[in-house]
Amino acid sequence: MIQNEKKTKLLAGFRQKLDRRYDRFAARYPKISWKRWTVITLLLITAAAFLFDHVAIEWVKTEPDWLRDFAADITDAGKSGWILVSAAVIGIGSHFVGPRLGHRLIRFRAIRLVHASLYVFLSVAGSGLLSNLAKRAIGRARPMHMDELGTMSFHPFAHDYEFESFPSGHSTTDGALAMALAILFPTFRVPFLILGFFLATTRTLVGAHYPSDVIGGYSFGVWFALMMAILFARYGILFRTGLPGSKG
């Protein structure tokens, strides 16, 4: 009887310690006024569509070869395949290897790595899926048709790559990954978001998308990753509500 009570107390103490450790290392997703930033995002997309899209593509036609080549070399970083495979491998590996590790702290970190991998996977996969559905439904003509159709030509559900410009799928992936990493590693959140947007702009530099497509895709990816963090937090997985940044 006494031994059972001791075991119960030890188990309860371990759970309390685990909860405190989880709170210590849990990332804090940022509290953002979504209405304000939604309005700002829509204004940016509208301004780019009417003021910069045509000018940007005309400039791209005369951009230096070295810049076009550089953009072409790095633009595929926005493809979701390598991110999803990496997240899946890390998550599955941590799930099966973690329980076999002896030290409790290491096992705990392995569990968190599983949750973080799942978060990145769902953020990139979910935003990419919705972005692809949206671009097919909207049917905006790509910049290759600007001279003949202008910047505001739409052919909904054309099921044609040449009419799937808005939003940019690569930019959506760049935004989702950048925001996910910014929340998971708040110390580097500014560099992550800047680098992500820079990668997104290469879609315009290679002539595949208008600036408004890039802004729309990147913003959607950022917002989707934030919404996923909020959803995880509601179920007590990985995140806690609060200011961005970890206490640890």
Question: Would you mind describing this structure in some detail?
Answer:
With 248 residues, the chain is mainly alpha-helical. The chain has a single domain (30-239), classed as Vanadium-containing Chloroperoxidase, domain 1 (Up-down Bundle). Helix content is 71%, strand content 2%. The chain has helices at 2-25, 34-60, 65-74, 80-97, 104-138, 146-149, 169-184, 189-205, 211-234; strands spanning 27-29, 239-241. α2 (34-60) packs antiparallel against α9 (211-234), α3 (65-74) packs across α8 and α5 packs across α9. It is elongated, with a radius of gyration of 22 Å. Residues 243-248 have low confidence and may be disordered.
Shape: elongated
Please tell me the total number of domains.
Answer: 1
Could you give the order of the helices and strands?
HEHHHHHHHHE
Rg calc: 22 Å
Cα end-to-end separation: 39 Å
| CATH architecture classification | Up-down Bundle
Record the strand order, biggest sheet. Answer: 1-2
In the predicted model, the low-confidence regions spanning at least 5 consecutive residues are 243-248
The major beta sheet can be summarized as:
2 strands, parallel
CATH class (first level) name = Mainly Alpha
Average of per-residue pLDDT values: 85
Query: Would you tell me the structural class of the helices and strands?
Result: mainly alpha
Strand content: under 5%
Query: What is the assembly state of the chains in this entry?
Result: single chain
Helix content: over 70%
* Count of DSSP H/I helices: 9
